[in-house]
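Narrative summary of target 7.
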Amino acid sequence: METEIKIGNYNTLKMTRVAERPNPHAYGGKESFGIFLDGGKEGEILMPQKYVPEHVKAGSDVHCFVYLDQDERLIATTEKPLAKVGDFAYLKCSWVNEYGAFLDWGLMKDLFCPFREQKRRMEIGESYIVYVYVDKDSYRVAATAKVDRWLHDVRQDNDGGLHKGVEVDLLVWQKTELGFKVIINNRYAGLVYKDQVFQYIHTGDRVKGYILNVREDGKIDVSLQPLGRRQTLDFAETLLEWIKAHDGHCPFSDKSTPDDIKREFQVSKKVFKKAVGDLYKKQLITISDNGLELTKKG
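Modeled conformation, tokenized:
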């Protein structure tokens, strides 16, 4: 079966031969500048010498990332980019010309984002949430800041397995008056309400989240904390370790303000009180006017 190359993605290709060129000063009159890999109908694909793994030989399988170089030729690398085709990512603009912006995605050649694919003119040094795709006209990998049209409707995916309490991967997209828009599992848009945020987050952060609700209109509510009993158990363990690390004493208690608790532990006062109750029932702590004290059992 002929190899089909995935542009802007990882491929496993067989080495066919060493790439050599004339050099009268080298042994045998030739020097190696890399290896060629079998690209099937695309022909041989060059992997420059600096990316060639050790001990590779003809017939060896090489796991590599394939994209187009400066001359629009297929090239292979063992470098790992910050994103591949089909990914949403937070990338920094490294330079701009009359055609668009170029984003640093961890490879020798920057990722192009044409002006028509920018929501606002990108500026050098600033970072942006983008989607990586293959341009059908130029056949090259490109980026777009107009990410909305690449997001999926969870209703068309038969809920996408997103049930209440399910743990998901989040990319923080943008801050709004309601909270933070996020991209869920590299596929769906969601929202974390600001009263559910107990930790500092910023556009581009990748964090774990938990599904709160999938609405009939397809909108998805997300929490940054586990739900219900699981959240209490997780934080109870965290609180116990915190007390141990602070000489067996915690100055926070039921009398502490929600803001103080949120600032120190990144949880609500309700979760804090439930965790304290759990530790007390297990006789791991005692409660006094001065806060919490570790017991001998604790």
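The chain has a mean pLDDT of 88.
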